[in-house]
TrEMBL record:
It holds the Pfam family ERGIC_N. The chain crosses the membrane at residues 28-51, 310-331. The keyword Transmembrane helix applies. This is Endoplasmic reticulum vesicle transporter protein isoform 2. The keyword Methyltransferase does not apply. Belongs to the ERGIC family. Residues 157-332 form the Endoplasmic reticulum vesicle transporter C-terminal domain. Keywords: Membrane, Transmembrane, Transmembrane helix. Residues 7-97 form the Endoplasmic reticulum vesicle transporter N-terminal domain. InterPro entries: Erv (IPR045888), Erv_C (IPR012936), Erv_N (IPR039542). It is a multi-pass membrane protein. GO terms for cellular component: COPII-coated ER to Golgi transport vesicle; endoplasmic reticulum; membrane. It is found in: Membrane.
Length: 352
């Protein structure tokens, strides 16, 4: 008999207690319904948690060689016409390019920031258009022509100077956008009026202190975007009032690989930045510009999308649902005993 009693004590499914076999209004409404709602909510929460991917970051030495670095630019210069803007690039290898015309476009903007026309240009030196001269300005233009001829400018330079002055008077701006493909070494690129002849620039602006390089950076990136990427210069606005100077953005580029859950690999770059502004003084020999000085990190960051295992999902689900069921059972027991304790004395009083 001792062995038989010992085996019975090991029974994992003993006979249910009396209170669990009695159907009560409190147990049905309060415990059962609330318990089912809680378990359903927790089930959908766990399912969403399982289906959502998460990212894992890994670092390694950058081994890439001989590749180019794409620089995506989208900027607006509200106070400079398109005719005077140019993009120059130089890198540590000594390669220096002036007035880059590869995959770079610009749009003329009026004083309200609206595009003037629908013409897309394939370089940063806008083609000359036929000037529409008004009768009441003819005398003024004739005087300007005499002054420019006296300074030794040819007809093309004279036309450009008059055109830019008219654009400045009308409050024209320029939107520069496109992609620069540079060598994968440290360097810089800048947007400025450096493409102009210094005497032409002097005739247009009357000095470096009158060049307003106010700008808005809509997008500046070094590769395609991936989920969660934040480019710190996007949305940057720098407006100058009654002053001029040079903006310098010091950029540290981190090569990055983003690996999707589908095993697709997206090579790109993320970066950090700090900036510095140098005001222009009357006797400075340099001209204002917006510089982007970049350097590359020797470390590559690999970001991988991963999903939690199905076994992990089942384990969490059983733990959550089982715990909720056990808790509702405890609540039902306490409520049953409470109600039983409150109703038993009344039954005894009736019998007496």
């Amino acid at each position: 008999m001792g062995v038989k009693q010992a085996l019975k004590s090991l029974d994992a499914f003993p006979r249910a207690e009396e209170h669990l076999l009695q159907k009560t209004q409190s147990g049905a409404l309060v415990v059962s319904i609330v318990g089912l709602v809680i378990m359903a909510a927790l089930f959908f929460h766990e399912l969403t948690y399982y289906l959502t991917t998460y990212t894992v970051h890994q670092m390694s030495v950058d081994l890439k060689r001989g590749e180019t670095l794409p620089i995506h630019i989208n900027m607006t210069f509200p106070s400079l016409p398109c005719d005077v803007l140019s993009v120059d690039a130089i890198d540590m290898s000594g390669k220096h390019e002036v007035d880059l015309d590869t995959n770079i476009w610009k749009l003329r903007l009026n004083s309200l920031g609206q595009i003037v026309g629908t013409e897309y240009l394939s370089d940063l030196v806008e083609k000359e258009h036929a000037a529409h001269k008004h009768d009441d300005e003819k005398e003024h233009h004739d005087d300007s022509d005499k002054k420019l001829h006296a300074l030794g400018f040819d007809q093309e330079a004279e036309n450009m100077i008059k055109k830019v002055k008219q654009a400045l008077a009308n409050g024209e701006g320029c939107r520069v956008y496109g992609v620069l493909d540079v060598q994968r070494v440290a360097g810089n690129f800048h947007i400025s009026v450096h493409g102009l002849n210094i005497y032409v620039a002097q005739m247009i602006f009357g000095g470096a202190t009158h060049v307003n390089v106010s700008h808005m950076i809509h997008d500046l990136s070094f590769g395609p975007k991936y989920p969660g990427l934040h480019n710190p210069l996007d949305g940057t606005v720098r407006i100058l009032h009654d002053t001029s100077g040079t903006f310098k953005y010091y950029i540290k580029i981190v090569p990055t690989e983003y690996r999707y859950i589908s095993k697709e690999v997206l090579p790109t770059n993320q970066f950090s930045v700090s900036e510095y502004f140098s005001p222009m003084h009357e006797f400075d020999r340099t001209w204002p510009a917006v510089y982007f000085l970049y350097d590359l990190s020797p470390i590559t960051v690999t970001i991988k999308e991963e999903r939690r295992s199905f076994l992990h999902f089942i384990t969490r689900l059983c733990a959550v649902l089982g715990g909720t069921f056990a808790l509702t059972g405890m609540l039902d027991r306490w409520m049953f005993r409470l109600i039983e304790g409150l109703t038993k004395p009344s039954h005894k009083g009736v019998l007496r």
